[in-house]
Each structure stands twice: as structure tokens, then as C-alpha cells.
Specification:
Elements (H helix, E strand, L loop, with lengths): L1 E2 L4 H10 L7 E2 L4 H4 L15 E6 L6 E6 L3 H10 L10 H9 L9 E5 L3 H14 L16 H7 L2
Parallel strand pairs: 1-2
Antiparallel strand pairs: 3-4, 3-5
């Protein structure tokens, strides 16, 4: 294989053909070596299809959730949920009000990426079970067989 250079390569091929050598050309600089295509790096709050963890700033409590949407959208809902009627509060808002605590909205951790909804829900249950300080309701993990409890607690 020789690099193709207009004019020169054709002349070289004619000369080599006389001695029964056939040329195969390569392109010396392909566009993909010159132009680098890449995706922009997303900030945490722009990610979608994630299992995430929000830590309480005042104690060891944490909340683990999952979302298909942008994490930023889901976090805004968590923050604004505190203005709902007391009977409709989420566990995050109840923890904030009952304990006069605040969550670390600036440092939300992405625990797992998963596009498939059911797999993401299983991953969420897995992480809820693993964190002993999770404030998630027990019903959040009802679909995860109890056999996994001892395995996950020992991790």
C-alpha cells in the first residue's frame, strides 16, 4: 500500500505494472484525522437516564432516585416540592421540613447510567438497599427480592 498523491501515484503505478506489481492506495490524511468529532462533555445536571444520589448537608441521610429526563429538571422538582401541601410532600421535602435540614443540590452524584427503564429501576432499588442512610420509602424497593438484602448490605 502506498499513499495516493495525485499525479505521482499514477506514474508510479504505470511503472510498477510493467513488472506485474499492482498498487493499492491509501489516503495519507483522512478527514477524520484532521477534523475531530466529539460530543461535548455534559455537566451532571444535563445527563439523562440516570440513577442519582442527593446527600443531606446536615446529616448522613441521602435520597436515591432515577430519572429519564435531564437530572436538572428532576432536581428542580425536588427543590420546589417543599411548597406543596403537607399531605403531598416527598420524602426529601419531609426530611427538609421535619429536621430543618438542606440537601446538597450542587453536588448530586450520578450512581448509574441506564437507558432501559426497567433496568434503571432495578439499579435504583439496588442502590437504595445498599445505602443504610437512605430516606427512600421501603415501597421503593418492594420489587427487589428479599434474597438480595443480605448481599447488598454486606457490600
Amino acid at each position: 500500500m502506498i499513499p495516493y498523491v495525485k499525479g505521482l501515484s499514477d506514474d508510479l503505478a504505470r511503472i510498477l505494472k510493467r513488472v506485474n506489481v499492482h498498487c493499492v492506495y491509501t489516503v495519507p490524511k483522512k478527514l477524520d484525522t484532521v477534523i475531530k468529532l466529539g460530543k461535548d462533555i455534559l455537566t451532571n445536571n444535563q445527563h439523562t437516564d440516570v440513577v442519582y444520589k442527593i446527600d443531606c448537608l446536615n446529616c448522613a441521610a441521602c435520597y436515591i432516585g432515577q430519572t429519564k429526563r435531564h437530572l436538572e429538571t428532576r432536581v428542580k422538582e425536588h427543590k420546589s416540592d417543599i411548597s406543596k401541601h403537607v399531605s403531598c410532600l416527598s420524602v426529601v421535602s419531609k426530611h427538609r421540613i421535619d429536621n430543618n435540614h438542606e440537601f446538597d443540590w450542587q453536588n448530586i452524584k450520578i450512581l448509574h447510567h441506564e437507558c432501559h427503564r426497567r433496568k434503571r429501576e432495578i439499579a435504583e432499588m439496588f442502590y437504595i438497599k445498599r445505602h443504610v442512610d437512605s430516606i427512600n420509602l421501603q415501597k421503593d424497593t418492594d420489587n427487589l427480592p428479599a434474597i438480595y438484602d443480605t448481599i447488598l448490605k454486606n457490600k
